[in-house]
Specification:
Layout: E1 2-5, H1 13-19, E2 26-34, H2 36-45, H3 49-62, E3 69-72, E4 75-79, E5 82-89, E6 95-101, H4 106-123, E7 133-139, E8 160-163, E9 167-169, E10 172-182, H5 188-209, E11 223-224
Parallel strand pairs: 5-7, 7-8
Antiparallel strand pairs: 1-4, 2-10, 3-4, 5-6, 5-11, 8-10, 9-10
Helix pairs in contact: 2-5, 3-5
Length: 228
């Protein structure tokens, strides 16, 4: 559910005054993540790497209350749920957008991820969840990147995460991500907390879920962008 709120009645009142009309209110942080636990689960359980990372993103964001308030136009909107967006290569060879509602149940999140990315790939129609605060993601799987800065459109103010291929160093795997956010939504400390949460969720995922099985993973015509 989404509802408009009075910025003056929130802790983001000053940020709203300072940044809503700024020429460039978007801030980008870069972070190198150790994604070794995700690689191990991917290989052992055949769960998609991008799905696992999207799950960790949703879990990390759910622990930072600033993610639930987003500047939309010139208003603040409060949400009671978070979704993670993924880019899907559709049957026409183009890309479509697919929002997945975050749930702490990894089996359910995986089921929804597979179902809706396949649905979007087949229909070539975007799946938008307008009642949730959506975290955008984009996987640039064709190359290793050292960073990327998102577009400041003035329309899409949602937080956005970009990554490329992971890199292997000795026995560990590392992934560089960029995290873009609107300064009205959060400050650097909140973004830093989210990124720390993200690494912690990745580290803890194998401990919690590494020995569980989540059923058959569809490998049919769903062409979700997956890091290999």
């Amino acid at each position: 559910m989404a509802k408009k709120i009075d910025p003056k009645q929130t802790k983001r009142a000053m940020a709203f005054e300072l940044w809503m009309d700024a020429p460039n209110p978007m801030v980008t942080f870069f972070k190198i993540l150790d994604v070794t636990p995700l690689i191990k689960i991917n290989k052992k359980r055949k769960l998609k790497f991008n799905m696992l990372l999207d799950y960790c993103i949703g879990k990390a964001a759910s622990g930072v209350k600033e993610f639930y308030i987003l500047p939309v136009g010139h208003e603040l909107v409060q949400y009671d749920s978070i979704a993670v967006n993924t880019i899907v290569k559709n049957k026409e060879g183009e890309v479509s957008s697919c929002d997945i509602l975050f749930t702490e149940d990894l089996a359910k999140f995986n089921q929804d991820y597979l179902r809706y990315t396949m649905q979007v790939a087949d229909s070539c129609e975007n799946r938008d969840l307008t009642d949730s605060m959506v975290i955008g993601t984009s996987a640039i799987i064709d190359t290793e990147i050292d960073g990327a800065v998102g577009m400041n459109s003035g329309i899409y103010n949602n937080p956005f995460i970009i990554w490329g291929r992971y890199k292997k160093k000795l026995f560990r795997y590392y992934l560089t991500i960029s995290f873009q956010f609107h300064h009205t939504q959060m400050d650097g400390a909140h973004a830093g907390k989210f990124l720390a949460n993200l690494q912690n969720e990745i580290n803890g995922l194998q401990v919690i879920y590494g020995d569980k099985t989540y059923g058959t993973i569809h490998d049919g015509k769903c062409n979700e962008q997956q890091i290999i």
